[in-house]
């Protein structure tokens, strides 16, 4: 049976693409110049890739995810002794969310930028003990990315490439801005291209295609043990949302999140029980509600849930 992807909620003013994989059978639809192979900035959709790679690298290095960050070398020196790798990936670190994007950009883009960003985050200390409350903070992923680099060897970019991007066959997912990157727009105006600070890359620096993100979802579904680690709810009953490693977890076990950068919006969803992966990428700052609606329509008849508002409201 052929399913249809209804892009009408997007209007026709922006370049956008939505891809859906059902048990490995793909359908994509794009508008403007966009296809499944067109790169967009994916913003916080980078986080699940950092999380997956960290889990894989930790397993290869025989490091338990509950290992205190303080035990994992110079990056972790001075960290709260109760702070673990798992707390970072689950956004339950309790770290003071005070390190700003401007502070990280001021570090520059040298080889040591990410390590310095991680030290800034850890040096700001705790506002609560680790594990007590979920709070979305990009700084958690600065530290996680630095730890991934330490676990796998080399830079964070090399570690992600060697651990995940190349082994999983992602051909167009990169930190290097592609020549054919769709330019972002806001209220119909094309925004100038902006660099993404190296110290922030683990939280949101990737450019990718819908085809590559469908591949990630399919590969994760094909690895049930890894999927189980990523989708386990790590938050408490009174937290503002259910969250695993890099993903919010829906009422029927859906994994979902969104990504936001000036000029771009992105949304991603995996429904493991129905072997469904869906992703939407758009070059327009006003498009997230429409992307959330389109992805919601792909899963609603399967789960009985409506999660458009959840996808739209996610705190990326």
Automatic annotation (TrEMBL):
It holds the Pfam family Beta-lactamase. This is Beta-lactamase-related domain-containing protein. InterPro entries: AmpC-like, Beta-lactam-related, Beta-lactam/transpept-like. PANTHER family: BETA-LACTAMASE-RELATED, D-ALANYL-D-ALANINE-CARBOXYPEPTIDASE/ENDOPEPTIDASE AMPH. It comes from the Bacteria. Residues 16-287 form the Beta-lactamase-related domain.
